[in-house]
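TA notes. Do not distribute before section.
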Amino acid sequence: MLGPVSSPQRGPASNAFNEAFLTGIEGTTEIVLVRHGQQSVPNLPNAKLGDSVDAPLSDLGREQARLVGERFATERVDALYSSGMRRAFDTGAAIGGHHGLEPVVIDDLQEIGMFRDVPRDQTAAEALGIDYLAGLRKRMARERSWDVFPLTEPSAEFQKRVVNAIEGIIARHADETARVVIACHGGVINAYTGYVIATDFDMFFRPAHTSVHVVLAKGHNRALQSLNDTHHLQTAEGSFVTY
């Protein structure tokens, strides 16, 4: 017969891990990164930039945004931010509507500038060629680096603006025991969580639409708590998980 579980030891090693991973530490800020819902126009190389970059939520994306909003309806949300892109702002608004909050727009939270330097009257396929793009996609699958793609925002530039933006938000809430929600994008979530865990990949995992990711912050410490939570998308009517 198993006996009762003993109390955890309170030695120096336990205290070190508490500090390193911000477990039970007062004044810790919880940064909740939420990917936007599905957009109505896929962000594909053969789409005109004006159609693909700032596409609105699809019907399914609006339902995903409603579900993630309901997920946070009974949880504390102390501050709410989003990128200025419609799909992210509207996802953030679905969360904020339950708390009387409107997302504060931070432009540097927008998604990676894919093919941003393609001439405005061309698609990426027209500028670079279909076969060339196919080869780039295979390289991206292997290397997971934005720098594979020409005419695109450089990886280091992208990560710097994202990390600086989120660190600025953290500084604004320094030493608050607060939950801060940031509605943003898959590349943005990878850039910041990848910075926290020091991965070499620009895309080290694939966030689902309206998935939830949590980073804890206090002082100089940052601790990744969870990735890709989609339990709110599993409903009695079925799964609403998409990528």
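Switch to the second chain here.
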Amino acid sequence: MNTRQDRSSSTSGSLPVVPDQGDALARLRDENARLRAELAQMRAFQDAPSGDEDWEAAMDQGIGYADGRSPTSALSAGRLLRQLTGLTKERLKAGAIRDSSDFDYLPKPSADEAKLEADFVRWGYCLVEDAMSPSQIRDQVDRMTEQAAAERNLGVAIMTSRSDAAQLVNNLVLKGAVFRDAVEFKASAAQRGPLVDRLLTKIMGEGFGLGCAHGSIVHTGGGLQDLHVDQGGMPLPYPPFPFGSLIIWCYTEFNLANGGTYVVPGSHRTAEGRTSFHDGADLLALVDGEPGLVAICAPAGTCILTDTRVLHGGGRRTAPGTRYAMRCHYNRHYIRALHEQSTANLHVPDDVYELLSPRLKQMMGITVNNHEPVGELSLASSPG
């Protein structure tokens, strides 16, 4: 900080050191922005009305929602995210997206659990180093490419970019033991799976559920998404913790040219724990801040864990070749799966259901399945 001494001071002893005008203005701007954000968030926590007159007015108004504007509460996040529509395409075209490796302070792959936790808290994501071995990657990529080809041949493939530049292989839990084992963090499928499991338990608590597990295949020109948060279906205001975590198993190297996931580091919360994603938030200011919009850089075998409140989106691959990954969304145990593909959890063939471990059934929310009649229904088979 540039400082100067206040020569007009009449205090005894050494003269006090005060900030210069530029530093003072910068500090006041920061404080003003922080206070504005706090006021915007506090609007959702106003005191409940008291007194008969207030109750009459509230009753006349009818049922409302958290933000007071959306026709349904689930649209709260979408209204905010409209600020960022088309932004990734615009920034990519302008060359304004940088590799995360350009910033020394952003997360790097690590196996140090304390370092991973610190990165997750500060930046909204962390990178687990060597989470999968080369042979584990090979087994899963071979099975994924085989399944993807079969779905294309059957005409049921989910192509997510124009010119078939990207394919989503949905519901991998039902499509291979190698995926099922990785989804529940067995070391046989992911050598640092137990470490990922511990981190997710700290994020969401015991008994967390599975929202989706799908393969992502991105060829040159594919993969671009708008920025979003992965708990956008939940109504505002958000509590000071994430509802879940999206993790990405990197089967191939991630970086800007390869279509690595775009992220706005630190866009999930403040140091005090308050969410940055609230009614009235200026999301563009987060994107334009420091370090701004970056592409996550990570070697093959890395596992990326994200806070569901952090702004992110799929990156476009501009390099030749193909990027492979598996994306798994997990959520707190009391929340149903937060993903459009999660309904597949409810349609499990009997032969596959028998192969699922008790934990995987719990994650998928299908532990209540019972083919035997229960209660009064069992009387139907009893002699009258």
